[in-house]
Amino acid sequence: MRLKPNLWLALATLFVSVAYSVHAQSAPSAGGKRIPFAVGAGVSGYNPDDGHGHLLGGTLWVDYFPSWVPPFMRGIGLEAEARDLNYDRSPDLSANLRQDVVQGGLIYSWPVFHDFRPYGKFSEGYGNADEGSAATVRYHDSRTIVSGGGGVECRAFRSLWVRADYEYQSWPNFFKHPATLTEPARPAGRLNPQGFTVGAVFHFDRPHFH
């Protein structure tokens, strides 16, 4: 389940389309109906847990916070997330190691306090990993994964927020690879990639949090 360039193009197009359409509906007046969406993007740095080191990449978020829930549930929402880690590998990682994730789940945001808003989240989705070089056998595996994390948003300007996000993932029964001429066999085991993402999020309507 590689996030190929055309999928990233589709995700980027979705990002821009949602931003444009929702902004068009929310701009006319303060009293007009607004849609409780947030869209954002960031730069991620992760420990892939397949050797020691780090991978860099990009992340896209789309959040939805329904306004029709009871007051005691305000702050609960849904989040869709896509991440591609494929850059600036540490020297001790496998050549061309790459990890992609597409997932969705619940997010809970606390009310704003002095322009800061903490949140927690739990997601489930699919993870894909590749390793190896062009001159050797390439290893590939995909898994259903779960992840949890949280972070904080800080208001930068009106509805634009800066987000600092931490996430811990669990990839069960992950295939590591058989013996080669230079490495002993590595049996199936659990991967726990984790890392941080720093980016920007635009909230189109969160009236009960302002």
For the structure shown, list the relevant keywords.
210 residues, mainly beta, Porin, 1 helix, 9 strands, 51% strand, elongated, disordered N terminus
Provide a quick synopsis of the model.
The chain has 1 helix and 9 strands; from the N terminus they run αβββββββββ. It has 210 residues and is mainly β. Strands 1-2-3-4-5-6-7-9 form an 8-stranded antiparallel beta barrel.
Topology (SSEs and partners):
Layout: H1 5-26, E1 37-47, E2 55-64, E3 76-87, E4 98-109, E5 116-131, E6 139-157, E7 160-174, E8 189-191, E9 194-203
Antiparallel strand pairs: 1-2, 1-9, 2-3, 3-4, 4-5, 5-6, 6-7, 7-8, 7-9
- Strands of the largest sheet, in order across it? 1-2-3-4-5-6-7-9
Shape: elongated
Give the CATH class.
Mainly Beta
Mean pLDDT reading:
79
Q: Just name the CATH architecture.
A: Beta Barrel
**How do the SSEs run, as a string of H and E?**
HEEEEEEEEE
What portion of residues is helical? 10-25%
Share in β-strands: over 45%
Distance between the termini: 39 Å
Structural class: mainly beta
Unreliable residue runs: 1-5, 14-32
CATH topology: Porin
Main sheet makeup: 8 strands, antiparallel, barrel
By DSSP, the count of extended strands is 9
Q: So how many helices?
A: 1
